[in-house]
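Late entry, evening session. Most of the bench is empty. Finally got around to the prediction I had been postponing all week. Sequence below, unchanged from the version circulated by S.P.
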Amino acid sequence: MRTRFGSFLPLAAATALLLLLAAAPACAKGAVGETAPAFKLSDATGKTHELSDYSGKVVVLEWINPNCPFSARHAREKTMTELARRHGQVVWLAVNSTSDSHPNYLEPAEHLAWNRDNGIDYAVLYDPKGTVGKAYGAKTTPHMYIVDEQGKIVYNGAIDDDPSGRKAEAQRANYVGLGLVAQAADRQPDPAATKPYGCSVKY
């Protein structure tokens, strides 16, 4: 390996340098503390939403798939809708990154019917090419993010600590709810990152 001064590094040193560079961790997509990736998506009604539209507001992003049992359970139990209602000052957006070539894909009209059946009145954004989901590193349905007023991701992970759904609601630690309370009090969510659970996003 030639240095900028024209000499060559010894082979052992060059090899060690290459190994060090290869081992350097890449910044995880959607990582806490990073700027939330910008997006422009249409919802199931055809209305366009850009993240920049909500500058200065706290935004919750919920990855959703009606054909996923985890999304369906939380819809039935009103986990997200009640939390969105209690925090009415927050912008709540669901994102469906299911590929339009996947059997689980729902046409917008079908999704709107499912939303009505489950009392979901916040926007569900369509990301059929998976561009936004991959930019955030969304892995599961649900996978939750809180974006603060400055556009920074302050929470990334699960909705709560009850993947099996066996706990009573009062016994669950709702991580997004705790994070929103912390944000309202000008504190950082704690925990700020948890392991998301659910079905894999059907990219």
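Two things to note before I forget:
The first strand starts at residue 40 and ends at 42.
The chain has six helices and nine strands.
Will write this up properly tomorrow.
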